């Protein structure tokens, strides 16, 4: 068994969850928030293996209306992680509002980089344009469904990609993403709806197994590579020192 825990770069977790329940997951989890108010609550915590993010979900009108760039900039000082942010072409929130929020966020992150998980559902072209405009490091495209051309463009922009169980049947897409740009996610409780049996944050074994088969590797070797990718990403975003001590130790071990 690998001494490294599973790595979940995008999961939705109630900020009121008991600390022992997070430890029991047996995984390093990056927990997204959907509004600045939720982020403020989450960032009061100090969990050993869970990293809490600052988010403003593009699909939530209340979160978008309540966004303030000064408050966002203040909140990120206490975390290495931003998410969930981005664009959603199916959202009832006007795209101009979503774009204004995302541009404000990317503007802050250009000067103060963070590992940033970005939503791009039905808005992949607009999302890539915004990322290219600001050149923000540390970007992870969550549940990416862009075209082959857009995927190549995202790789060229330096983006990483977090893969969940709902994506693993898309062989063409997965082959287009270099293994050293891949991270795993559950997007619990959304991205793991099709998983049989247990569903919880950190349970990324189906994704690891699919990647192992695709790249003719063992699941253990895949997990090692995922942690190396996180180490590189953390360095590019200059946030290694902000990660929990336990996670920093795992990064040092790979």
Please indicate the count of domains.
1
What average pLDDT do the residues reach? Answer: 96
Query: What is the 3D form?
Result: globular
Number of strands: 8
Structural class of the secondary elements? alpha/beta
Tell me the series of helices and strands, N- to C-terminal. EHEHEHHEHEHEHEHEHHH
- Write down the CATH topology: TIM Barrel
Q: What would you report as the Rg, rounded to the nearest angstrom?
A: 17 Å
Euclidean distance between termini CA atoms: 15 Å
Kindly report the name of the CATH homologous superfamily: Metal-dependent hydrolases
What is the helix tally? 11
CATH architecture: Alpha-Beta Barrel
- The first-level CATH class is given as Alpha Beta
> What summary fits the major beta sheet?
5 strands, parallel
Model regions low in confidence, pLDDT < 50 over at least 5 residues: none
Strand line-up of the largest beta sheet: 4-5-6-7-8
The residue fraction in helices comes out at 40-55%
Percentage of β-strand residues: 5-15%
């Amino acid at each position: 068994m690998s001494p490294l825990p599973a790595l979940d770069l995008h999961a939705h977790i109630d900020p009121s969850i008991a600390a022992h329940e997070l430890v029991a997951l047996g995984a390093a989890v990056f927990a997204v928030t959907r509004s600045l108010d939720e982020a403020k609550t989450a960032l009061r915590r100090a969990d050993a293996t869970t990293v809490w993010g600052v988010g403003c979900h593009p699909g939530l009108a209340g979160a978008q209306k309540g966004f303030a760039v000064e408050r966002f900039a203040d909140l990120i000082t206490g975390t290495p992680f931003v998410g969930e942010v981005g664009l959603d072409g199916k959202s009832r929130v006007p795209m101009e509002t979503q774009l204004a929020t995302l541009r404000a966020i990317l503007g802050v992150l250009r000067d103060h980089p963070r590992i940033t998980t970005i939503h791009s559902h039905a808005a992949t072209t607009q999302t890539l344009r915004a990322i290219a405009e600001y050149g923000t490091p540390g970007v992870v495209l969550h549940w990416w469904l862009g075209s082959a051309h857009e995927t190549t463009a995202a790789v060229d922009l330096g983006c990483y990609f977090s893969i969940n169980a709902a994506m693993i049947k898309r062989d063409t897409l997965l082959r287009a993403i270099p293994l050293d740009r891949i991270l795993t996610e559950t997007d619990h409780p959304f991205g793991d709806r099709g998983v049989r049996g247990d569903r919880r944050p950190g349970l990324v074994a189906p994704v690891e197994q699919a990647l192992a088969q695709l790249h003719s590797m063992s699941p253990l070797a895949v997990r090692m590579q995922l942690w190396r990718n996180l180490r590189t990403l953390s360095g590019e975003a200059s946030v290694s020192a902000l990660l929990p001590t336990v996670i920093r130790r795992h990064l040092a071990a790979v």
